[in-house]
Write a structure and sequence with these properties.
Length: 301
């Protein structure tokens, strides 16, 4: 009998003529009439990265002079491309964190989620976590954020986390009668979706980083406004092929994990580091400053 660790329905005068001309030129460089192509890695089209799709479709990125190119590829390939300067950003914080701990020059620059959106679901006859003893649990990979979240839930309930295998989405599973047993955010404060870029990009192209963060801030504010809830449910249902009732639950699950301002509490990041070091068997000590650079984001607040 197999269980599923599911992902829920799966963002810058002098008062002279010269200064005015310079300001005008800068506006054009990042204006809507001449958008700059920026490549953003996504692990695949799913509700977890919905903020990037919606920001693009709604025109929030375009307003910041960005032509956002959402590129789906496996996280390891994306990380290698970003380090090589062939990709601007990645949305997968988990793979980037593992790469940082292994020496890659990357930084988290924005948090879409403060907590994971994963949920542990099981077949209908299983009603408690203890009943999972000896069962197979579905995850994408044992060492990614989903796998680590699953392990923390099982370990927190004194269950051997050795049988981990790929899942459906939590809301879809629930709609089919599966039992929703636990939320990963209650056990492991692992952020899975946000914005990561190379340290080289932060130094050489801060304008790009600022523009995409501004677009994300606009998108996140819109998504979290209760007045826009009906629109968001319809968008999710149409874009991700869901029933409206399931889309409603998926949106609620996502909003519950979203960062209100693109940041994450330092204590939560420190706990996250502990989980990654344990899972990846990394002896070197890390601090939140080793993982993130929120200087551009903080200037925009």
């Amino acid at each position: 009998m197999s269980m599923s660790f599911a992902h829920p329905l799966t963002f810058l005068r002098r008062a002279t003529a010269v200064s005015i001309m310079l300001a005008f030129s800068a506006a054009i460089a990042w204006g809507a009439t001449s958008p700059t192509k920026i490549t953003i890695h996504i692990p695949g089209k799913s509700v977890s990265v919905m903020v990037f799709y919606f920001g693009k479709d709604k025109g929030f990125f375009f307003e910041e002079g960005i032509d956002a190119q959402l590129v789906a590829m496996s996280p390891p390939i994306a990380i290698a491309a970003m380090v090589a300067g062939e990709l601007d950003f990645s949305t997968t914080l988990g793979a980037a964190t593992a790469a940082i701990m292994r020496g890659s020059s990357l930084k988290r620059v924005f948090y879409v989620q403060q907590d994971p959106t994963f949920a542990l679901t099981a077949q209908p006859e299983i009603k408690t976590i203890r009943e999972l003893t000896g069962k197979v649990i579905g995850v994408n990979a044992p060492t990614d954020a989903m796998g680590m979240s699953a392990k923390m839930i099982l370990k927190g309930n004194r269950i051997d986390p050795s049988h981990l295998l790929p899942p459906p989405y939590a809301e879809e599973a629930e709609a089919k009668g599966y039992s929703r047993l636990a939320e990963a955010k209650d056990y492991a404060p692992l952020s899975t979706i946000g914005l990561v870029t190379s340290m080289q990009a932060l130094i050489k192209n801060p304008g790009k980083v600022q523009a995409i963060i501004r677009g994300l801030l606009k998108t996140m504010a819109y998504l979290q406004n209760p007045m826009n809830r009906h629109e968001m449910v319809q968008y999710i249902a149409g874009s991700f092929k869901m029933e409206p009732s399931v889309a409603e639950k998926a949106l609620a699950s996502m909003l519950a994990t979203y960062s209100p301002d693109g940041t994450k509490p330092r204590k939560a990041v420190e706990r996250e580091i502990e989980i990654y070091r344990e899972t990846l068997q990394v002896a070197k000590a890390f601090t939140p400053d080793d993982l993130e650079d929120l200087s551009i984001l903080k200037k925009l607040h």
